[in-house]
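Researcher: Let's do a round of design. I'm pasting the structure tokens now; please hold your answer until I've finished.
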């Protein structure tokens, strides 16, 4: 361990010597600034019962189905294989087939393949109680008149032709049930109706799907939550897909499992947590769950209900699609019982609609449909080496039909064993029945500012058990470098917009035509606003701060793209007004919100770092947003901020959304001032920038480089913190040294190799040195030499005259010196 610190000579000796705004913008992706509810079945049934007081209750249904299940067991009724015809009602604005949201038949085919896999217990469940439900699905062959469908199983519905209202701001579930379903449902005795809707909501949150629930009664008025005009499933367009070909490259719900979940409700299943704390789903072979799960949990997951490990892979939980793979035997029993006894379920298997099976194949592809993954090099495991593991999958559309060998062929700019390591053998062996093969890539962290790197994975196939798919035959892994950091003590303005001389802002609409309410820069901001501001107006000439509340609009103003490269985080702050209309559970509303974009083409709802959406409504006087800390995915990238105004065609109050004094700031990396250590990293020859940062707070300690030989396992530490100076005794005399002391260590493979060190100090740490701070020396002690009582001379230490750089604006000083070992 070599100790480095600064010295100022107060005595001399032989040993130590001194020295646009606004162009029209076409926006093609909508992501509402609302929370997402993954399933609204239970709530929708509750709403139904409010208006149907004689509807069957949960208790009545459970008593009925329990009696039927026991009767099946007593009579030893065997499970039946049911084949059910589906009709997908695809809602769109009349876009070309294959253009979102008018999904192609290929997309529907993938959803069908996933649904059949899930219901046949072919999605790799780890549980012994996992079961084949005995239910499979086919595409309806004929329409209600008996005419053969040009596209089996597909009914395309144009909002414009049907004269339905726009879904851009989200259809209410009540509107779907009262208007859309009755006008489009096919006979529910013969068809399993699935409505595929781009956007729907309960008025406050976006919904991913909901289903009607079966009933035990055939009497009119006693349905459990459906009738002949509503029976079926409603599904968000973005939830249609499969594990083989995910929609929108997967997200958390693009693998097609939402339909598996909602169809579970349609055939009689409850949520696994029973919709209450430690509730009952009436299946003895599912463990009691405390509540719903989400995301990607890990085992074991015990709870306070007495369960040692929850079954979060069950389709009736809320975890991400990639997790879900299990229906249990008891769940299959419930579905079999419903199929045998429940209205609008019994008759489906008669196949009055005919059926076109969806034939699977043995084609393979990488599971990420973009063909690329971007990942930060920042490690999550280990101290040396520091790394993270990336799991990839080569999926078979159905399963391998025989033996095959897939040989991986990695290339690219990333260097094997420095940037990454392939932990999976290059040769993957498929046997008949295999559904997938996993690939693990270890991404190594480093301290080197060497730019982004890429790993390109291709493969070859030997044998006939699997064949190459049409897409997804290669994978590019882009490793984002995070070491070219900005260092400083104060936030740096990335955007400071007052609209006096506006930058290249854009204005556009999610609705075509946009309508009267648009974004304009004007001088009519009203009280509190000095000079021009950017706001919604209903007159592009006179530019009043007013909107037409009887015409729906969905308009956005988009900032110039800014770069956050090298900053540890980013913040947003702005002044605003936004009154509008308060939301309630049964109506849309008028409000402002935030969006983001990386390319001015695709947009998403913006949250703060805690995941909270910001809604601006009810503020008629000028307010400040406060400093909004942006999520980490806005670090080290280029992005723009969108300010979105949505209003319905009902009532509302001026003023609409106004923004002014918009500031986006980058928060630089600060200099470490406390006892701290870095992770261990290798330093390559002639790699001049290797930034060593604290493991606890990411603050900068030092930069280490080498011009002669590679260094391994280098660690930078601050072993003694402090500002100012303290005494140092040497053989050559008395000196002052910095209170702050650094230690640089190397791994055994490169110990005592020469290196160059740049040490970082804050201005505050150097205040006590006054003007002498620019004439200090760097002193390195050999390993084992004590600062307190060691013999310090030319045999135990090196003294060098450093290069000193003071950056008073950023608030730090660096001292750089080269040492011979």
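Researcher: That's everything. Go ahead.
Model: Designed sequence:
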């Amino acid at each position: 361990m070599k100790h480095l610190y600064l010295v100022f000579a107060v005595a001399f000796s032989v040993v130590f010597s001194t020295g646009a705004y606004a162009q029209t913008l076409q926006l093609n992706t909508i992501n509402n600034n609302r929370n997402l509810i993954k399933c609204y079945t239970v709530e929708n049934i509750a709403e139904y019962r409010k208006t149907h007081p004689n509807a069957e209750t949960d208790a009545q249904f459970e008593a009925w189905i329990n009696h039927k299940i026991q009767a099946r067991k007593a009579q030893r009724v065997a499970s039946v294989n049911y084949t059910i015809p589906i009709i997908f009602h695809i809602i769109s604005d009349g876009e070309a087939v294959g253009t979102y949201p008018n999904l192609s038949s290929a997309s529907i085919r993938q959803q069908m393949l996933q649904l059949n896999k899930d219901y046949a217990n072919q999605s790799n469940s780890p549980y012994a109680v996992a079961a084949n439900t005995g239910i499979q699905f086919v595409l309806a062959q004929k329409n209600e008149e008996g005419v053969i469908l040009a596209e089996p199983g597909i009914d395309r519905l144009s909002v414009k032709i049907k004269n339905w209202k726009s879904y851009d701001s989200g259809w209410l579930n009540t509107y779907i049930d009262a208007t859309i379903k009755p006008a489009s449902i096919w006979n529910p005795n013969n068809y399993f109706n699935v409505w595929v809707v781009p956007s729907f909501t309960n008025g406050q949150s976006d919904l991913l799907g909901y289903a009607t629930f079966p009933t035990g009664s055939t009497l009119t008025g006693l349905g459990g939550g459906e009738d002949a005009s509503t029976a079926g499933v409603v599904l968000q367009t973005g939830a249609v897909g499969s594990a083989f070909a995910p929609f929108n490259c997967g997200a958390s719900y693009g693998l097609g499992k939402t339909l598996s979940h909602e169809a579970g409700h349609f055939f009689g299943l409850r949520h696994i947590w029973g919709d209450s704390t430690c509730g009952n789903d009436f299946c003895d072979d599912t463990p009691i769950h405390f509540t719903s799960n989400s995301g990607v949990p890990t085992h074991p997951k015990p709870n306070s209900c007495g369960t040692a490990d929850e079954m979060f892979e069950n389709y009736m939980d809320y975890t991400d699609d990639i997790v879900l793979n299990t229906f249990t035997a008891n769940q299959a029993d419930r579905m079999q019982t419903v199929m045998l006894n429940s209205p609008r379920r019994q008759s489906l298997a008669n196949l009055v609609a005919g059926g076109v099976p969806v034939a699977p194949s043995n084609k393979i592809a990488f599971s990420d449909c973009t063909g690329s993954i971007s990942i930060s090099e920042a490690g999550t495991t280990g101290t040396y080496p520091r790394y993270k593991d990336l799991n990839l999958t080569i999926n078979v559309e159905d399963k391998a039909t025989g033996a095959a060998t897939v040989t991986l062929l990695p290339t690219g700019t990333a260097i094997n064993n420095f940037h990454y390591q392939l932990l999976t053998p290059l040769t993957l062996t498929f046997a008949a029945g295999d559904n997938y093969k996993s690939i693990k890539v270890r991404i190594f962290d480093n301290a080197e500012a060497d730019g982004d790197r890429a790993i390109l994975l291709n493969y070859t196939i030997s044998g006939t058990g699997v064949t190459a798919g049409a897409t997804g035959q290669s994978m590019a892994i882009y490793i984002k470098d995070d070491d070219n950091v900005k260092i400083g003590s104060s936030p740096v303005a990335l955007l400071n917009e007052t609209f006096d001389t506006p930058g290249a802002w854009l204005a556009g609409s999610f609705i075509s035509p946009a309508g009267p309410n648009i974004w304009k820069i004007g001088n009519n901001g009203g009280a509190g606003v000095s000079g021009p501001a950017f706001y919604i107006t209903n007159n592009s000439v006179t530019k009043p701060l007013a909107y037409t509340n009887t015409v729906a609009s969905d308009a956005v103003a988009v900032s110039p793209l800014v770069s956050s490269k090298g900053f540890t985080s980013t913040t947003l702050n702005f002044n605003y007004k936004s009154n509008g209309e308060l939301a309630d559970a049964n109506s849309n509303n008028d409000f402002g919100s935030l969006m983001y974009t990386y390319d001015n083409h695709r947009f998403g709802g913006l949250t703060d770092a805690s995941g909270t959406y910001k809604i601006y409504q009810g503020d008629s006087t000028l307010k400040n947003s406060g400093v909004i800390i942006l999520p980490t995915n806005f670090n080290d990238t280029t992005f723009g901020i969108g300010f979105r105004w949505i209003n319905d065609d009902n009532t509302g109050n001026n003023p609409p959304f106004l923004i002014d004094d918009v500031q986006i700031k980058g928060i630089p990396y600060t200099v470490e001032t406390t006892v701290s250590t870095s992770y261990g990293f290798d330093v390559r020859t002639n790699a001049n920038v290797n930034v060593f940062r604290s493991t606890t707070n990411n603050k900068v300690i030092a930069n280490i480089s080498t011009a002669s030989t590679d260094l391994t396992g280098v660690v930078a530490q601050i072993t003694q913190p402090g500002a100012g100076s303290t005494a140092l005794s040497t053989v050559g005399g008395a000196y002052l040294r910095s209170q702050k002391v650094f230690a640089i260590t190397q791994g055994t493979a490169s110990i005592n190799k020469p290196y160059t060190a740049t040490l970082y100090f804050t201005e505050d740490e150097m205040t006590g040195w006054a003007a002498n701070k620019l004439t200090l020396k760097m002193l390195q002690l050999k390993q084992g030499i004590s600062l307190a009582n060691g013999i310090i001379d030319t045999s135990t230490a090196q003294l060098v005259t450093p290069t000193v750089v003071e950056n008073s604006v950023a608030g730090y000083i660096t001292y750089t010196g080269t040492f011979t070992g």
